[in-house]
């Protein structure tokens, strides 16, 4: 595997991206049905004076912001990994059917096993995402050709369609399942407490490390399989590591926040506009751009109809689609 540059890559663009990310996190703590001054929001992180504002921030908005950071980071990076692996600039985490597998596992847990604990359902979701990823990779790997980018996409689309059909059948025939899946299926960051953060964080961390480690080899694979092999890249190893990273990232994010669309498509494109085609820099920029986009969409959902919230999945669908179209047209996205 090729390595990361020895010198620091903290360019002015990356510093700007990090600054906007930090500002968005602070705004996520301060803005909502009841707005809090920015200084007070920061103070609440280090000292709880027992006031309503401090209680709101520490018990509601901080966990909501942390879930947004984790889910945004995971979905954005998994999208960047899939785009690099399949050499398709418009690939999305949903292409491999992982979201569909997570949803089906949760439906089975609720409808067949009577699971009601959110903590337990998170594990069901992650298990479904993991098993689906393994199934897609196994289906794509069969035969002499192996798991080529095209075969991975085709296997993911086929298996995802089957799983979504099964999920719809269970949901529409069981009112209890329908009620519990309604908000999660849209995509939301509204949580109380830190259970989802504690469960998702280790998987997001491990998936991110694997994704960053494999980034240099994905640069080589962009030259084509034959060229990559001649340069010493282990195609099977790189694809396996990439699939594992996508499984961990998408599974944990979907379990925590639901199947949020467009982020895996949009964030890597924005990153690519900042830093070019180097996957190493795309991944690093995406780590900050994706949660910034997701938190900004969540803030918008809180303010449009306050004191009511609009789930972030709906905001991403409404705002994300035209932004993505604009990026494609203005940046003239080319094949990777």
TrEMBL record:
Q: What membrane topology does the annotation report for this chain? A: Multi-pass membrane protein
Is Transmembrane helix one of the keywords UniProt gives this record?
yes
**What transmembrane ranges does the database entry give?**
12-31, 65-82, 94-115, 121-140, 152-172, 197-220, 241-262, 282-300, 312-329
Q: Which UniProt keywords apply?
A: Cell membrane, Membrane, Transmembrane, Transmembrane helix, Transport
Name where it's found: Cell membrane
Q: Does the keyword Cell membrane apply?
A: yes
Predominantly, its location class is: membrane
Concerning CDD domains, the annotation shows:
TM_ABC_iron-siderophores_like (cd06550)
The UniProt entry, under Pfam families, shows: FecCD
What domain of life? Bacteria
Q: Which family does it belong to?
A: Belongs to the binding-protein-dependent transport system permease family. FecCD subfamily.
Designated name of the protein: FecCD family ABC transporter permease
Q: Which organism is it from?
A: Aureimonas populi
């Amino acid at each position: 595997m090729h390595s990361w540059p020895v010198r620091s890559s903290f360019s002015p663009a990356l510093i700007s991206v990090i600054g906007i990310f930090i500002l968005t996190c602070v705004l996520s703590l301060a803005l909502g049905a009841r707005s809090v001054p920015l200084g007070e929001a920061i103070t609440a992180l280090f000292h709880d004076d027992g006031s309503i504002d401090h209680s709101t921030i520490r018990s509601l908005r901080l966990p909501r912001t942390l879930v947004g950071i984790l889910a945004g980071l995971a979905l954005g990076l998994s999208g960047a990994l899939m785009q690099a692996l399949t050499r398709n600039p418009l690939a999305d985490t949903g292409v491999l059917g992982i979201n569909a597998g997570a949803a089906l596992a949760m439906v089975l847990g609720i409808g067949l096993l009577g699971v009601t604990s959110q903590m337990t359902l998170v594990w069901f979701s992650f298990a479904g995402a993991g098993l689906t990823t393994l199934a897609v990779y196994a289906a794509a790997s069969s035969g002499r050709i192996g798991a080529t980018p095209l075969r991975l996409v085709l296997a993911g689309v086929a298996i995802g369609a089957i799983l979504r059909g099964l999920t719809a059948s269970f949901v529409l025939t069981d009112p209890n399942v329908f009620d519990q899946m309604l908000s999660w299926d849209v995509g939301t960051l509204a949580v109380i407490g830190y259970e989802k953060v504690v469960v998702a964080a280790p998987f997001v961390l491990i998936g991110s490390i694997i994704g960053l480690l494999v980034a240099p080899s994905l640069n080589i694979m962009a030259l084509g399989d034959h060229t990559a092999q001649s340069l010493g890249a282990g195609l099977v190893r790189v694809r396996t590591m990439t699939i594992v990273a996508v499984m961990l990232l998408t599974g944990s994010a979907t379990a925590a926040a639901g199947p949020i669309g467009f982020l895996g498509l949009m964030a890597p494109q924005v990153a690519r506009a900042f830093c070019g085609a180097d996957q190493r820099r795309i991944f690093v920029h995406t780590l900050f751009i994706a949660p910034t986009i997701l938190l900004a969409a969540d803030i918008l959902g809180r303010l449009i109809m306050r004191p009511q919230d609009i789930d972030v999945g709906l905001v991403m669908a409404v705002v994300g689609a035209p932004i993505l179209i604009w990026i494609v047209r203005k940046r003239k996205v080319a094949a990777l």
